[in-house]
DNA sequence: CGCTTCACGCGAACCGGTTCGACAACCGGA
DNA sequence: TCCGGTTGTCGAACCGGTTCGCGTGAAGCG
């Protein structure tokens, strides 16, 4: 069942059916009604591939996300969900593309074979060849994250530097003098992940400003690693009274480590960081944290991409977000020890 | 840059280029080399829409997942990740389709417009019109979950009945006599979600078998609801000493409620349920639970779908999984009270 | 009444691939 | 030398839409 069949049954030509559907040329009410009736009767829908071939747009956007090998964090899930939902509102479908080790292959599929009109990139690195590559090609894309040279690019990012610094100031204001930083896994830091780098920067600078004694750690994205990391922290400096973390997935393990060391949160030890709000609330006591507005970021990314697709020659745009710290129950004044 | 351009530069016809690429007819080594050289030079890749139009296959599978309105659980994330990864291994892309309120619209896009060759459905209901609809159409699809009448269908499911029963027996063996069941939200139960129904069934029957006193609850998919639910449980029957849950997202809240009621896990109260292993380990004490093998299920679903696509006339297949309970630290003998 | 104007619909070309039938060149065997 | 079979290549048709240019009949106008 194709457009020719509809045309035949309605007693008109294929082009007339096409115009009746698209409205790009006037069609008399009579014929339009007749065509619509046949379409409803047969439940006809135009073939997406044929349409994409003819007018050069697939009405699909690609979402390039990290490989499953690493554990997913809740934040990534929220990104995916909100991107899909926002795209649906614009009548775009979302094609998932794992950007694994051989990111070239996946990229070739998306771009070279023209499967998508534009792309949204997650898990950005400070020096990101994917971003550079797309920029060179002039291919419409929006990054969720910000490279070291974001000027002139399209992105929506989180001000990790400021957020980590805010966490440090929060702890310093409470009187903490010896604190630790729990980062994402070392492998990601070495790969240049922007959140890991900027977060670390913000933490280090703010701590220096306040004259704090600090230690920084990398930690795997799971509970067991979090627990192990906390043991190292207390082993390296038992006088530590607080920590800042970017590592959502390790949070449960950090709490467990504290409980087993007999440190009560927040009486003996304060915990804070940058974490999606929904996850900050699952731990007890609930985490005082800068809540990552993942859903808002996903929506923004789609809005920007659609704008870029609709106005290819418009100026580049971006959003830099810096949500405030939500005070919950995991931080408190440093005890005189 | 298209196949005609390649043909021109290589001094051959378009069909020869096509055959050189597909290998469906012999091409002399000389011409093949010449063609390959031009292709490499120009970085040519065949247009996916054109190819899909010509041979009737998109090399894309649709993943129909629940709308973002409800919170996602970690399990769903694991499904998505493993499906994408498994599909990539077969050279399939994955198109995400939110099956929201107007699931018809999204379905029409996927099927009517022929965007995908097959589909994987998540969040199955006992009476699921999507499954029925696809079965009527003979459209290749695989369900992650099992309807009330799974005979002759393609699916990969979890034996929630058996798993919930196993949890009850585990608690009963430890001497618990009064236990509660914490289900998914009431809205989902009413909608007929299979895990909620079968889990409840398994719990109820096993409890009756063991002569236990039980209460069952529905609980929202977030920590606050979990905490509230636990308060209700202890209010309704303070002598309750254990619970079984399917609700991953509420788990943190349940623990918090217990802590605030002064019940120590596992000394005063035992907690168990059916939860993805990775999340069972984030809480303290770690949850004794039947670990949902989400990644394995996603892989199986893709395997089945690809088999169905390759052999449209083969007999239907399915996998019913029933992972054992992993003993961790959240259950213990009932205290004589 | 003859002329322009406009609304409407048609046919053909095109998007970029795949596939089928035909044909030329070459080979060995009778 | 002629014939039959291979091998390699080509042209044309096709997949199912969109879009451009043109023709036609009716309405508008002096």
Automatic annotation (TrEMBL), chains A, B:
<dbReference type="InterPro" id="IPR010982">
    <property type="entry name" value="Lambda_DNA-bd_dom_sf"/>
</dbReference>
<dbReference type="InterPro" id="IPR000843">
    <property type="entry name" value="HTH_LacI"/>
</dbReference>
<dbReference type="GO" id="GO:0003700">
    <property type="term" value="F:DNA-binding transcription factor activity"/>
</dbReference>
<dbReference type="Pfam" id="PF13377">
    <property type="entry name" value="Peripla_BP_3"/>
</dbReference>
<dbReference type="Pfam" id="PF00356">
    <property type="entry name" value="LacI"/>
</dbReference>
<protein>
    <submittedName>
        <fullName>LacI family transcriptional regulator</fullName>
    </submittedName>
</protein>
<keyword id="KW-0805">Transcription regulation</keyword>
<feature type="region of interest" description="Disordered">
    <location>
        <begin position="314"/>
        <end position="337"/>
    </location>
</feature>
<dbReference type="InterPro" id="IPR028082">
    <property type="entry name" value="Peripla_BP_I"/>
</dbReference>
<keyword id="KW-0238">DNA-binding</keyword>
<feature type="compositionally biased region" description="Polar residues">
    <location>
        <begin position="328"/>
        <end position="337"/>
    </location>
</feature>
<dbReference type="GO" id="GO:0000976">
    <property type="term" value="F:transcription cis-regulatory region binding"/>
</dbReference>
<dbReference type="InterPro" id="IPR046335">
    <property type="entry name" value="LacI/GalR-like_sensor"/>
</dbReference>
<keyword id="KW-0804">Transcription</keyword>
<feature type="domain" description="HTH lacI-type">
    <location>
        <begin position="1"/>
        <end position="55"/>
    </location>
</feature>
């Amino acid at each position: 069942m194709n457009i020719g069949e509809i045309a035949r049954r309605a007693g008109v030509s294929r082009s007339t059916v096409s115009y009746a559907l698209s409205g790009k040329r006037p069609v008399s009410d009579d014929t339009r009604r007749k065509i619509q009736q046949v379409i409803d009767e047969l439940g006809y829908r135009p073939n997406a591939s044929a349409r994409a071939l003819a007018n050069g747009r697939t009405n699909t956007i690609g979402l390039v996300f990290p490989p499953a090998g690493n554990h997913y964090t809740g934040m990534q899930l929220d990104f995916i969900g909100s991107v899909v939902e926002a795209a649906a509102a614009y009548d775009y479908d979302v094609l998932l593309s794992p950007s694994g080790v051989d990111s070239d292959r996946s990229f070739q599929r998306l771009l070279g074979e023209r499967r998508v009109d534009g792309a949204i990139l997650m898990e950005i690195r400070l020096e990101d060849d994917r971003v550079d590559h797309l920029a060179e090609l002039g291919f419409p894309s929006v990054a969720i994250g910000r490279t070291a040279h974001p000027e002139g690019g399209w992105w929506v990012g989180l001000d990790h530097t400021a957020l980590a610094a805010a966490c440090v100031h929060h702890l310093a204001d409470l009187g903490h003098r010896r604190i630790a930083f729990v980062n994402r896994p070392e492998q990601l830091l070495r790969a240049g992940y922007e959140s890991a780098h900027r977060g670390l920067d913000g933490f280090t600078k703010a701590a220096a400003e306040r004259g704090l004694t600090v230690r920084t750690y990398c930690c795997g994205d799971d509970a067991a690693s979090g627990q192990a990391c906390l043991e190292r922290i207390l082993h390296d400096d038992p006088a530590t009274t607080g920590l800042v973390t970017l590592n959502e997935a390790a949070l449960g393990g950090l709490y467990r480590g504290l409980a087993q060391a007999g440190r009560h949160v927040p009486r003996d030890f304060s915990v804070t960081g940058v974490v999606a709000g929904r996850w900050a609330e699952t731990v007890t006591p609930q985490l005082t944290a800068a809540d990552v507005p993942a859903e808002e970021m996903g929506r923004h990314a789609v809005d920007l991409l659609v704008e870029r697709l609709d106005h290819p020659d418009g100026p580049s745009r971006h959003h830099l977000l810096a949500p405030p710290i939500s005070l919950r129950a995991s931080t408190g004044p440093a005890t005189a020890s």
